[in-house]
Amino acid sequence: MSAHHAETLDAAAGTPAPAAPPKLELTGVGKQFRTKRATTQALDDIDLTITDGEFVSLIGRSGCGKTTLLRMLAGLLSPTEGKILVEGRSLWDGSTVDSSVVSQLGVVFQEANLFPWYSVLDNIALPLQLRGDGKAERRERARELAELVGLQGFEKSYPRELSGGMRQRVAIARALSTHPKLLLMDEPFGALDALTRERMNLELQRIALATNATVVFVTHDIAEAVFLGDRVVHLTPRPGRISGITHVDFARPRDIDVETEAEFGKIVRELRHALDGEE
Amino acid sequence: MSPQRMGRWLPWISTPLLLAVFFLAWDVFVRVNNMSELVLPRPGTVLASLVDLVQDPETWAHARVTATETIAGFLIALGAGITVGAILGKVRWMEYSLRPMIVASQVVPKVALIPLFVIWFGFGMTSKIIMSAMLAFFPIMLNVQLGVRSVESGQRDVMRALNASRWHTFRHLELKSTMPYVFAGMEVGIVFAIIGTIVGEYLGGSEGLGYLVVRTLNELNAPALFAVIILLSVLGLLLYFVVNGLKRFFIPWHESVYSQHDVNA
Ligand SMILES: Nc1ncnc2c1ncn2[C@@H]1O[C@H](COP(=O)(O)OP(=O)(O)OP(=O)(O)O)[C@@H](O)[C@H]1O
Ligand SMILES: [Mg+2]
């Protein structure tokens, strides 16, 4: 046996080299908005590494740059400083996005952004239509998703006939339709009642586990952030900086009872204090 | 009773009623003031005249000419309006460089140009078609330009996040969200097209309902004059309803359509 062979064996036994690059890697990312009236440093020096299949919750006060960060990850807004790597490849080249890097992406925006000319089913199936799936296949999948988000019976409705929370659920179904490997969600459940929200939280967890999707999830609800996240990242406002990262180690799949555990309450309390202290 | 349901049947009762009141008042007005029928004929006389007019095949030949001119002018305006509006809406530097010219050409009283068109294109249909196209062009063009710009940025983000091609973005987003503006422009445009045709016929030529107006005026035949005006109004209404019907067919999802005739009502 040659020495060379032994060496590679050794490496394999230690760290699984060559280490696969992390799903998302942000180094020194910043964003400055310049308008006629003012210059806003929305985000400053964000360093964050997110591994494949991880669920990261993002919390912070209104206006601290959560949406801005998500839009940069989605390839919709170019950072003014720093680098964003997706699986080791640079997402932004200056202010142009490398669209081949952002494939298999699902985005839920803060607003539903539905297309009023399409029915609920057609809205949900839009990403499938764009990628060229057949009609029957699309219908099937869209129906399945409509049921998943609790909109059975509204498949043929138009967005104008739905409530705000129902529209948001259509947007969630649309984002999930392609089984994305990377989900970016901006307060997706903000408009939902507590019970629906609970159910959607469980569904989201189930889907993320089943598809091994990486999720970046923005919310104002600390309990929701803790319930869903493997880590909770908190941002401070003006300029938006990461003020801390809290690890949440409850086993998955978690059920609603987790929220009654002492450990859960403790984490939520600490996070609340941390956010309060930033004032 | 829901307002929507009322909105469905009320016009069918109120319109004939209002018309009846109107004609009655008209009739009373003429008789009380003892007016000459040469100035203001009584509704009955106009009706008799209208019946005569409708039975005359010559009238229909004239109506056909007017309709042809209007539709041709309108279609030209539609094609040109959509093309120019889309280009100006999309290409900023084009709009900036052409805006003074566009504003200027809008302010020019285009009707004043008809004599020129008559000199250049003769007394036939061409000069009227051009007139009607010119009048209908601007509202269509301006609406399309506005529509192309009014695509919601949030919906654009959805397409961008989905990595949609230019064609897909056009087909699923830009085209759809511009459609209501196109139809708004068309509804104004068709009315303007009729005005253009009729004014064109007033000023030159020997065909069309506009020409009939002038001829009956020269004959001092007030009842016939009224009858022709009624025919013109009916033609205008018909064309408007065609455009409105197209709108209902193509953009049933749009607010201007579903609030007009709510499907749930
Ligand atoms: N297009 C823009 N132009 C100028 N400033 C902007 C723009 N977008 C965001 N900002 C500024 O950047 C900061 C962060 O905005 P962002 O939308 O990311 O906040 P957020 O954390 O998502 O807030 P919320 O929780 O209310 O949604 C704000 O101060 C905002 O004023
Ligand atoms: Mg936001």
Automatic annotation (TrEMBL), chain A:
The record's annotation in SUPFAM superfamilies points to: P-loop containing nucleoside triphosphate hydrolases
Task: Note whether Transport occurs among the keywords.
Answer: yes
Alphabetical list of Gene3D superfamilies matching this protein? P-loop containing nucleotide triphosphate hydrolases
UniProt keyword list: ATP-binding, Nucleotide-binding, Transport
Example GO molecular function term? Answer: ATP hydrolysis activity
Under CDD domains, the record lists: ABC_NrtD_SsuB_transporters
Protein name per its UniProtKB record? ABC transporter
Origin species: Prauserella muralis
Automatic annotation (TrEMBL), chain B:
Question: Membrane topology per the record?
Answer: Multi-pass membrane protein
Please provide, in alphabetical order, the Gene Ontology terms of the cellular component aspect for this entry: plasma membrane
Q: Which UniProt keywords apply?
A: Cell membrane, Membrane, Transmembrane, Transmembrane helix, Transport
Localization per Swiss-Prot or TrEMBL = Cell membrane
The superkingdom listed in its UniProt entry is: Bacteria
Q: Which GO terms describe its biological process?
A: transmembrane transport
Which InterPro entries is this protein grouped with? Answer: MetI-like, MetI-like_sf
Membrane spanning stretches:
9-29, 70-89, 101-123, 129-148, 181-204, 224-243
**What family name appears in the similarity comment?**
Belongs to the binding-protein-dependent transport system permease family.
- Protein's name in the database: ABC transporter permease
> Source organism lineage?
Bacteria, Bacillati, Actinomycetota, Actinomycetes, Pseudonocardiales
